[in-house]
Amino acid sequence: MKAVVFHGIGDIRLDNVAEPKIQKPNDAIVRLTASAICGTDLHMIRGTMPGMKSGTILGHEGVGIVEEVGNAVRNLQPGDRVVIPSTIACGNCSYCRSGYYAQCDKANPNGPDAGTAFFGGPASSGPFDGLQAEYARIPFANIGLVKIPDGISDDQVILLSDIAPTAWMAAELAEICSGNTVAVFGCGPVGQFAIASAKLMNAGRIFAIDTIKSRLQMAQEQGAEIIDFNAEDPVEALKGFTGGIGVDRVIDAVGVDANHPHHGAGAKKASLKAPKNRMEQKMVAPKTNTANGNWHPGDAPSQVLTWATEAIAKAGTLSIIGVYPETAQSFPIGAAMNKNLTLKMGNCNHRKYIPMLIEKVQSGVLDPEKVLTQVEPMTSVLDAYKAFDTRQPGWVKVKLEPSATRVAA
Ligand SMILES: NC(=O)c1ccc[n+]([C@@H]2O[C@H](COP(=O)([O-])OP(=O)(O)OC[C@H]3O[C@@H](n4cnc5c(N)ncnc54)[C@H](O)[C@@H]3O)[C@@H](O)[C@H]2O)c1
Ligand SMILES: [Zn+2]
Ligand SMILES: [Zn+2]
Fold this sequence. Notes:
Elements: E1 2-8, E2 11-16, E3 28-37, H1 39-46, E4 62-69, E5 81-84, H2 94-97, E6 135-138, H3 141-144, E7 146-147, H4 154-157, H5 163-173, E8 181-185, H6 189-200, E9 205-210, H7 213-221, E10 225-228, H8 234-241, E11 247-252, H9 265-272, H10 274-284, H11 303-311, E12 312-320, H12 333-338, E13 342-345, H13 350-362, E14 374-377, H14 381-389, E15 398-401, H15 404-408
Parallel strand pairs: 8-9, 8-11, 9-10, 11-12, 12-13, 14-15
Antiparallel strand pairs: 1-2, 3-4, 3-6, 3-15, 4-5, 5-7
The structure holds nicotinamide-adenine-dinucleotide and zinc ion (2 copies).
């Protein structure tokens, strides 16, 4: 079968690989009808999420049809249409049973303290082969896979595999209450759904910060007040727009690949921090492999964390859902402590939110398709990765059609 395979930092290929087989009684094999490219995949290829094993199939977002189940999977059968949560969890341990699926004690073969188990990630996360493939083996399928009701399309539900639950959890961690002012840093797919989630939680005003025009425009279409960090200093702008108070809630939907401003009012301040930024970049991405404008790590890993603690109101809540590797160790703790901030963060407990989000899509409250801007066959996956990496205008979220290779073959 065809799959996107990680060969090294800056080196991914569309390879022919062996089809997966059932290995354990609670496994299922799923034929993917949809997959997607995520900002998290970019961290791995840019080298800001280290420890990838060569030969790992990438991708952690998927929708498909169950082909085969192990004999301990009693709630599914071949032919069922399912959405696959990005993180893998056993459903039995105390963490899973309290909804902390991303902290499952059993799913990660490296042990309970090795970190979140997920598809297509670094060696420390399993590694498990990912979902940018024609078929995938899904461990703990009985708890992981969620059946899709009739009437919901792949274009809608693919965004419920990772992005929508992640953004919902980000808004939940931010403790948004009616009337709160919320700032969302990053207008990628996660940022867009964070805006949608904050709206559903009755936020009063929502600010969206990025520098990509088409992404800011999408945020504005959702009703957010937009700030381009290369045109104005986002901290000054947020303070100014809130009568000097700052925002009650901040969501970091950027993570380690953050950039500092290169133009505008914030650029001068950023240039003073250039040595610190370079040092942090070296710590999080000791190895990079850039080629033809692709796979450049962000040039200021802690930029959003700094802005967030400056722009937030006293006693506000900061929710960090953007990914940081363990090698990222810079956070303005003094500023946060002295403002009595609440900090909440983490990897998404996908399985906890997916059924509820399916209902929101069914009822029309949430429209994931607004964020899906590209649908590409697997045969164009490498070009799609490059366009998404360089933030081409209009490219917000890319759905892949793995079975399209079959038709083409
Ligand atoms: N915690 C989880 O479980 C989880 C799950 C999925 C994704 N994520 C993470 O969420 C983050 C966003 O994912 P995505 O798919 O939307 O990524 P993306 O790469 O498409 O979007 C990131 C956006 O941040 C913007 N940006 C860069 N520097 C900025 C700055 N200083 N201020 C404001 N915006 C800035 C970029 O222009 C880009 O539009 C990534 O770090 C991803 O790994 C986390
Ligand atoms: Zn993802
Ligand atoms: Zn568990």
